[in-house]
Amino acid sequence: MATVSIPASTSALLLDIEGTTTPITFVKDILFPYIREHLEEYFSNHWEEDECKQDVHLLKKQIEEDMRQNRSCPVHAVDQTVHTDEEKAIREVMDNVMWQMAADRKSTALKQLQGHMWRAAYSSGRIKGEVYQDVTPSIRRWRAHGLKVFIYSSGSVEAQKLLFGYSVEGDVLDLLDGHFDTSIGAKVEAKSYERIAERIGCQPEELTFLTDVAREAKAAEDAGVNVVVVVRPGNMELTDDERAHYNLVTSFSQLQVTGRV
In which element (H, E) is residue 180 found? Predict the structure, then answer.
């Protein structure tokens, strides 16, 4: 693919993670399986700690909201191996977490819990954050031209910082000016991008968003934000109309800065 010019009006770049800075396989094959495999152990070891209690409280609030909205929830089967009230409570929360993950839910409650579980895995060296090889050199180049760089992902801000703080290239958090997650709004809603621009202190047209998801691209575009769609191995296929409509890149190195010293 040819080079794509970052609009001259741009003062800040907003980057998605999964499928944009980071292979989808890292999330699907490493991060998510880690949660499934260690969830019971995590709850058993941390159930009485304040942070875990806060995570569980948020998850229960999400369950209540789902019930109010008549959304389907996991059905709790009778388990003869569960004997105590604590074991029962843990099993019910576990069932809900597993159900949300199977449904690819993006709830803030789920993402917060995952972030706390991944923190231990990153800090112990069991997991290192993967980023494509073109990412950090490109961010350094953009910053040298005076552009700011922010992250917007459905993963919690804490999970984002862990990925870049314990990456395969070491701690690269100093290359990022800030982080946003779904607490500011869903990625498929235009209002979210308006709020981000306001929080950053720029107009929507001064922001350029890089994502691999067409629905997110449309939402950003509807908010007046510039959009570049990133095509990486394993990403969801774009329609012919989407390919014709958006500027596409397969590598950050194709993005050229124009109109800036």
Answer: strand 178-180
